[in-house]
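testing teh design pipeline on a random one, pls ignore if ur not involved
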């Protein structure tokens, strides 16, 4: 409807010819094998100016996508999880949060969880576990200080996870550095990777206070360009407020933005008005998107060439 000529291609070896796939609504799409000719990719009788990826490439960059000649690849390869690191995004978001906090007069910690990184660390060794434990203790101490400042009574915790998308350990919740050896042993018993050198990120844990039908829920915001276009609640009835909800058994509820015109009531004390959650989610989403643009700029391998 935007007036663009679009074809859907696939680099799967199973797609050897145009393949029609029926959709639940009665419509269909046609997948065509991607062809590479003279440094450009497309499908039969179609040479696109832009290629839109729907894969995060965490398993690696296929050679067919490399060194393209005068074609735009969106997102670019340096935005893929082959090279991307969570710590770089959080570093960029931290800078955005500080500037935004100064602009509106709030402590940036209110919208930006603390984090730390560990370089290559071997969790199977006592030395590696001790090094991780020290960093966990330092981060917990910083969070405790903030909790005391704001009168927060909950016990702080830290999330330890791989710095890239999918390789290495999953999420591990740590409330005390002394728990680490037992937690890592439990992860290994469940078959989660833990041995060998890993890049890790430590992040301040945030309790999930939202509820949908008494089940823990967390908001996810959808954006197109810089515009918030909607979102959903991820809901899990069997998970706690300090656990990952993106797991088997989760369900999804549309997050309507119809109430976005709600405004604070004039004349009442600050914080007394009902919070406009949808608007707040959108603000954080836009800040994160701005941070992502900073991240792309900072990691662009061709940035110096353009200068």
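output:
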């Amino acid at each position: 409807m935007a007036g663009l000529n679009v074809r859907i291609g696939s680099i799967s070896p199973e797609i050897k010819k145009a393949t029609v796939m029926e959709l639940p609504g009665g419509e269909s799409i046609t997948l065509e094998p991607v062809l590479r000719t003279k440094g450009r990719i497309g499908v039969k009788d179609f040479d696109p100016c832009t290629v839109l990826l729907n894969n995060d490439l965490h398993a690696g960059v296929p050679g067919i996508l490399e060194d393209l000649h005068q074609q735009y690849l969106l997102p670019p390869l340096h935005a893929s999880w082959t090279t991307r690191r969570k710590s770089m995004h959080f570093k960029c978001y931290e800078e955005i949060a500080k500037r935004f906090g100064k602009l509106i007069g709030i402590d940036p910690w209110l919208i930006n969880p603390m984090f730390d990184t560990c370089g290559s660390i071997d969790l199977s060794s006592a030395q590696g576990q001790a090094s991780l434990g020290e960093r966990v203790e330092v981060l917990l101490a910083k969070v405790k200080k903030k909790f005391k400042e704001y009168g927060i009574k909950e016990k702080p915790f830290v999330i330890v996870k791989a710095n890239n998308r999918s390789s290495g350990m999953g999420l591990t919740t740590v409330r005390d550095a002394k728990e680490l050896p037992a937690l890592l042993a439990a992860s290994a018993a469940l078959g989660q990777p833990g041995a060998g050198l890993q890049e890790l990120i430590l992040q301040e844990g945030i309790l999930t206070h939202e509820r949908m039908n008494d089940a823990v829920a967390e908001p996810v915001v959808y954006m197109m360009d810089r515009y918030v276009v909607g979102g959903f609640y991820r809901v899990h009835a069997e998970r706690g407020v300090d656990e990952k909800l993106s797991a088997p058994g989760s369900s999804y509820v549309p997050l309507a933005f119809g109430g976005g015109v709600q405004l604070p009531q004039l004349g009442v004390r600050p914080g007394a008005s009902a919070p406009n959650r949808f608007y707040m989610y959108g603000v954080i989403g836009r800040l994160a998107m701005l941070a992502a643009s900073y991240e792309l700029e900072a990691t662009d391998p061709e940035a110096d060439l353009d200068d």
